[in-house]
Amino acid sequence: MIGYLILVHRYPEQFKRLFRAIHDPANQYVVHIDRNSGPALEQEIRDFLAPYPNAEVIESRRALWGGYSLIDAELRGMARLLEMSDDWEVFINLSGQDFPLKSQTDIKAFLTLNRGKEFIRALDQRQIRPDTLARIQNVAFELRDRIVRTFVRRPFLRGATPYIGTQWMMVTRRFCQFVCHDRKADRFKAFYRNTFIADEGFFQTVMKNTDQHGRMINDDMRAIDWIPDGDIKLRPRTFTLADAPMLKASPDLFARKFDAEVDDGILVLLEDWVAEASAPLDPPAVMAA
To answer: What does the alpha-carbon distance between residue 84 and residue 80 come to, in Å, rounded to a whole number?
Structure first.
């Protein structure tokens, strides 16, 4: 029912804990490992996944924060999931430092009640986040290990409106097929290839400017505490055991981020919480537009 893409760049043991917590033989799993992480980490994860017939590691390429390479990893992950099985209905992307707040039974129940909906945060970038317009107005390009931002300006795509949100989403198979394979999506790929932090706007913009999708819900169903990180971005605060009451009470399905080297206790608690969960999600389980 679910096609998962997990993006990994460090902490293989934490990835294994995440995978065990979300594994279900009925789902499909694709993992992308940042090539910058080195061959040892990739081999460890490949060895770990070898016994799972419904999990694959796709070709590892460099994935640089702020670069289109993150979009490339997402698109390649979506495309491989589409090839692996005709059965899954919903694509969910995670990082290796995410963790579920609900059991797979509860997550599937939620998705069944909300079948055909797209869970993705999307705001009109010009109206709500004009402070970020330089990301798409000024040409940027990705080198081997850095992003080069220029002062060369260009107009946005004719007849389209830019949107912005977060990288995280739960979207339908229908949308994945469209964004991966339909030529109408190509102009968005070509434009966003030379933008900065494309992963926070590309999928939103494609979806809001086309009709190959279900009803959009402005929610990614992730518990994230965004805090400032310099002048250009926010970053997710690392959750600790002190956050346990909030996370257990959250209506969200997943949370990020976690770091076992900072606080392993919160992961132990959530592992037990998810493993023991058997009751259905509390209402409201059906999300209004």
So the answer is: 6
Q: How would you classify the pairing of strands 163-164 and 90-95?
A: unpaired
Rounded Cα–Cα distance for residues 83 and 78 (Å): 9
pLDDT along the chain (289 residues), means of 10: 96 97 97 94 96 96 92 98 97 98 96 97 97 96 90 96 97 98 98 97 98 96 91 84 97 97 97 77 53
For residues 175 and 207, the answer to whether their CB atoms sit within 8 Å is yes
Among 165, 180, 178, CA closest to 77: 180
Question: For residue 63, how many other CB atoms are within 10 A of its CB?
Answer: 23
Fold assignment, 2-222:
Spore Coat Polysaccharide Biosynthesis Protein SpsA; Chain A (3.90.550)
Q: Is 196 exposed, middle or buried (0-12, 13-18, 19+ CB in 10 A)?
A: buried
Which residue ranges make up each domain of the chain? 2-222
In 187-287, which ranges are E strands?
A: 216-217, 222-223, 226-228, 234-236, 254-256
- Give the integer Cα–Cα distance in Å for 207 and 120: 10
* b/e sequence 224-258, b meaning 16+ C-beta within 10 Å: beeeeeeeeeeebebbeeebeeebeebbebbbbbb
Q: Is the pTM of this model over 0.90?
A: yes
Residue whose C-alpha is closest to residue 203's, from 39, 73, 16: 73
Determine phi and psi for 124, rounding to 5 degrees: -65, 115
